[in-house]
Amino acid sequence: MDERMDELDYLILRELQKDGSMSLTVIAKKLKVSIGTIRNRMTRLTADKTVQIIGRIDPDKVGFHAYARIFIAVKPAKNIQAAAVKLAAFPEVSFLAMISGKYDLELNVQCRDNNHLVQLMEKIHTVDSVYETDTNMYLKVFKIAQPDLDLVKDIWVK
């Protein structure tokens, strides 16, 4: 946690999680502080990448019907970072992390259809040091959410 964050930052983030398009004026009124205070806090929170205001779309509704999780083993292990950089550049990749266990990397990808996913898998296997993959299709997504800030509320609210 950033040491400069406090309860007001937490409350601002909670309001934005409820409605990311909420105006700073409305946030200021709800939290009973000045618009200038909210503007300054938002400037800092966006500058340090604590918050990014984006529009979350439903992939299925806009034409992405093949959503998958791909585990990747990289050999030799010293090439994990380089492989991750190359994989992160693929536009289909929505999430990429180094993980523990049998595999080194986990990717979430969004593709138009199964043929698109097959083409992507072929591209993934051309990346240097990609040794093995294991792909799981998401058949139906029931929930996509941001972290629940109430789970860390005690950090800010004392």
List descriptors.
about 160 residues; alpha+beta; Arc Repressor Mutant, subunit A; Alpha-Beta Plaits; 2 domains
Lay out the secondary structure.
Layout: H1 7-18, H2 24-31, H3 35-47, E1 66-74, H4 80-88, E2 93-98, E3 105-111, H5 114-124, E4 130-138, H6 153-156
Antiparallel strand pairs: 1-3, 1-4, 2-3
Helix pairs in contact: 2-3
Shape: elongated
**Major pleated sheet:** 4 strands, antiparallel
What structural category do the secondary elements indicate?
alpha+beta
- Low-confidence blocks of residues: none
What is the residue-mean pLDDT, rounded to a whole number?
A: 92
Quickly count the domains.
2
Order of helices and strands: HHHEHEEHEH
How far is the first residue's CA from the last residue's CA?
Answer: 15 Å
Number of helices: 6
Q: What is the CATH C level class of the largest domain, in words? A: Alpha Beta
The portion of residues assigned to helices is 25-40%
What is the CATH architecture term of the largest domain? 2-Layer Sandwich
Strand order of the largest sheet: 2-3-1-4
Note the beta-strand portion. 15-25%
CATH topology of the largest domain: Alpha-Beta Plaits
Count every beta strand, where a strand is a DSSP E run of 2 or more residues: 4
Overall radius of gyration: 20 Å
| Fourth CATH level, the homologous superfamily of the largest domain | Lrp/AsnC effector binding domain/regulation of amino acid metabolism (RAM) domain
